[in-house]
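Why does this matter for the project? Reviewers at the last site visit asked to see concrete outputs rather than summary tables. In response, this paragraph embeds two records directly. Each consists of the residue sequence and, immediately after it, the corresponding structure tokens. Nothing has been edited or filtered.
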Amino acid sequence: MFNFFDEIKNNLVVVEKYNLVNISGQILYVEGHLGLTNLSKENISFRVKGGRIVVEGENMLLAELSENTMKIVGNIKKVEAF
């Protein structure tokens, strides 16, 4: 059975000045981004303090974007920090 709060606790990554929450590989919430560097259905990358995050997957789209938060939806396969 899916438990929203367990999913958040298990998938929350807190690193310096940004937060990532990956929910079941279908939704990625990002807080603290510093701007997009690439946007496609297979690859979305953005800057964060101290580096860059690359999200790889299929049929991804940027569902929400604000000054420092974003929501990516789709089939998220990999999230890497550089």
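We now turn to the second protein, recorded in exactly the same manner.
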Amino acid sequence: MPVQTGDTAPDFSLPAGPGPDRVSLSDFRGERPVVLLFYPFAYSSTCTEELCAIGDDWSAWSSLDAQILGLSIDSPFVVQKFRKDLGLDFPLLSDFNKEAATAYDVLYDEFFGSRGVAKRSAFVVDREGVVRYAWVTEDAGVVPDFAEIRGVLDAL
């Protein structure tokens, strides 16, 4: 069962590109809430739409003082290039070994012939590491309700 509202968010440490630097969920503990956006594949149309929706409205998101993190099973090279190509102001992380997606239980058994692809899902984690919002869909063509996510962040 995927991580639910009220659960302690599983920690992870993932690269935002090639090299030794990693981003951990615990890096933000006590400092700011975090929005985790798992997406299936970089450069797919709906994933691009989802991440660009946040990037295009960055001033509204940044005013919430929350850290946005995009996560996919793409390689560190791909997430770095995807972020650069989209001009995003927030990190995209490579969950290439599927550690975070497994911990959050958001992996498709089969997705267009591929196994172990992250389901489109969104989680809001508060400053103490508790999940305050959890949304997981089986339909990869649907994006999260960003107004709902911003409402949760406003309430924190």
